[in-house]
Amino acid sequence: MLNFELYNPVKLIFGKGEIEKLSTLIPKESKVLVAYGGGSIFKNGIYDQVKTALQGFDVVEFGGIEANPYYETLMKAVDIIREQKIDFILAVGGGSVIDGVKFISAAVHFQGNPMDILHQRILFKEGADVVPFGTVLTLPATGSEMNSGSVISIKATQEKRDFGGSAMFPKFSICDPTVIASLPKRQLQNGVIDAYVHVLEQYLTYPHKGYLQDRIAESILQTLIEVGPQVVENPTDYTLASNFMWSCTMALNGLIQKGVPSDWATHMIGHELTALYNIDHARTLAIIGPNLFRVLFETKKEKLAQYGKRVFQLTGTEEEIARQAIEATVAFYHTMGMKTKISENAANIENTADFIVNRFEKRGWKALGERQNLTLDKLREIVELSY
Amino acid sequence: MLNFELYNPVKLIFGKGEIEKLSTLIPKESKVLVAYGGGSIFKNGIYDQVKTALQGFDVVEFGGIEANPYYETLMKAVDIIREQKIDFILAVGGGSVIDGVKFISAAVHFQGNPMDILHQRILFKEGADVVPFGTVLTLPATGSEMNSGSVISIKATQEKRDFGGSAMFPKFSICDPTVIASLPKRQLQNGVIDAYVHVLEQYLTYPHKGYLQDRIAESILQTLIEVGPQVVENPTDYTLASNFMWSCTMALNGLIQKGVPSDWATHMIGHELTALYNIDHARTLAIIGPNLFRVLFETKKEKLAQYGKRVFQLTGTEEEIARQAIEATVAFYHTMGMKTKISENAANIENTADFIVNRFEKRGWKALGERQNLTLDKLREIVELSY
């Protein structure tokens, strides 16, 4: 087990009907920017619930934060906060809105060009001068409601970049599982797979003797396999919705990565597919992940075998189980409605590998992954296998 | 799944060699009370490590906090803090020292009789006027290093009482698994069982559709079964020590109880055996727990069957598996060196049931447990079965 530091001060309020607690969670006398996305909160009643709970607060609204939120969009909110002296931000949305609000929070008082936050991957530590924020989660998937990371897209350069730090934890997050009732099936499918791959990134590396961490990771995978296919058909079932939502939060609230190596190469490659073709984030992960396991089979096969045995109850030799575990993963992704080839998700893809390899080269990235053995040659192989 | 609120701001620093970080964790210019127990920290080198790390701080020492710490002892530390204007407390010890420091922290500025903190079970919420404290864990078992609860004994009345609240979270806890190398086997055995029963109290209730919570609880049980028998023989093995220590913290840092019912009757009854006969806390749990499952079999059998299948891989009818799960638990306790009858741990025990029933009656406690169906009749039956 590796040494680790665990610190997560988010106050998580989980359950039905909890949105009304908002008024007790935001500091009195705050001037609040309510940030949201494309307007689904108007249809599903969450906007009304939030507005009712915020009676008595001075509220400014900022809508239109897109999926894979753009730096360019978020800077508009930064200007509003600076001009109107807003002192609290409430993100009402999924991972994109919450990630966007983290960027807004960090950028308002940032000394220098806010673009540097992304390009230089600035770390915002406790005590940094940021605007405090809370969240009302409307789409379980990313865990952003209980972590301190953020991924932002830059429209001008078609890039996705991440940043974070302990000042980027929400002060609170309200997770009401009933909000998923009105979500489109596609978004529910994406949420399940996003959370599932988050766990795999932190689990499917090499044996590291973090026995408890492994078992907790497997717990989340098993729960997502159990509830995932059902919840997309029955999003009003509270048992399914609550286990789905809680699994998504636990998949990326920092806990399971403590003391163990992690990979994240599937995400790094997947981000490029979103930037290039606007493929849904989760779907890029479902495309890349299995091919990454195939190409890096030799160095991942011990964990693949453990995963196959414990999560899919596979039997056979270690090598057989490890290979079958990849196929079982693909089968699960297909069950969840994923199409696991780039060509099933986008057109004119023949230069994808060249493009991504070139871009990584330009950034000076020579290798990725928990062993830093995913070289640019292997990157090309993974992407080409994914066509 | 029940609604829940999760908030745990403890900064947990986990791993070898981390004690030296103390100087960066305690606020500069603090006057620090270093509180410890019977002096084992002088033998195992931890005292020296702590003193070295605290160079430059104004330090006052308070030793002699006993196992099952006494109110009477702790009040001496309260006086010292008041007299010497100390503004930070560092607990160096196991659950008893840490629980004791929580009481000291709460009592210093408490308006009124500090005994009321225990008798009236005062809740110390965020913002309460308490003395901030951190911990260096020397004995994994209770999870006190990452929770906000405390159990204190009262010498005058032979009672054990608990209190807590979100102001009672340590500011930080340093958990270095190498500290267990010098612990007596008996304390290691107790630590494993203490953590194991902590999980059972939060898990072995009734089916509640918290699928993920159940699986995480089972993860901790499985890890303790895997490492427990080995770690007591090989406490210098870092893999065993680190998984043991992390399991103990995770067993009672609040996470697995979120959204599910919990029991705690085994603890309530066990506390009385410690108060009466000074039986080690963990050993009282090993005595009472299995008999509680036997007496409340009808209302616990569904979870017992799930536990038997998933943790012990038992097969048979649901009823058979549930019964065998109790026996498998007792067998595990025996493997861990527990003696599971009161008479194997103390003499002159014939009035135990009368005494405990009378005491619970006097407190007005009519029933315990997750269904409040552990009545005084059943309490008597459990205690008598334990003779």
Characteristic terms for this protein:
15 helices; Rossmann fold; Dehydroquinate synthase-like, alpha domain; homodimer; alpha/beta; 2 domains; 387 residues
CATH topology category name of the largest domain in chain A: Dehydroquinate synthase-like, alpha domain
CATH level-1 class of the largest domain in chain A:
Mainly Alpha
Q: Count of DSSP E strands of chain A? A: 10
How much beta of chain A, percentage-wise? 5-15%
Sequence of strands across the biggest β-sheet of chain A: 1-8-5-4-2-3
**Count of alpha and pi helical runs of chain A:** 15
The first-to-last residue Cα distance of chain A is: 37 Å
- Described by the principal axes of the CA atoms, the overall outline of chain A is globular
Output the structural class of chain A.
alpha/beta
Specify Rg of chain A, calculated over alpha carbons: 20 Å
In round numbers, the mean pLDDT of chain A is 96
**Main sheet overview of chain A:** 6 strands, parallel
Overview of the structural elements:
2 copies of one chain form a homodimer. The first copy, chain A, contains 15 helices and 10 strands. A 6-stranded parallel β-sheet of chain A has the order 1-8-5-4-2-3, with helices on both faces. A two-stranded antiparallel ribbon of chain A has the order 6-7. Chain A has a two-stranded antiparallel ribbon with strand order 9-10. The radius of gyration of chain A is 20 Å and the shape is globular. Chain A starts with a strand and ends with a helix. Chain A folds into 2 domains: 11-178, Rossmann fold (3-Layer(aba) Sandwich), CATH 3.40.50.1970; 184-385, Dehydroquinate synthase-like, alpha domain (Up-down Bundle). Chain A has 387 residues and is an alpha/beta fold. In chain A, a hairpin with a 4-residue loop joins strand 6 and strand 7 (159-164). The A-B interface holds A 1-18, 177, 209-213, 215-216, 218-220, 222-223, 226-227, 238-239, 242-243, 246-247, 250, 255, 258-259 and B 1-18, 177, 209-213, 215-216, 218-220, 222-223, 226-227, 238-239, 242-243, 246-247, 250, 255, 258-259. Chains A, B: Its EC number is 1.1.1.1. Chains A, B: It comes from Flavobacterium keumense. Chains A, B: It is an enzyme of class 1 (oxidoreductase). Chains A, B: One of its GO terms (molecular function) is alcohol dehydrogenase (NAD+) activity. Chains A, B: It holds the Pfam family ADH_Fe_C.
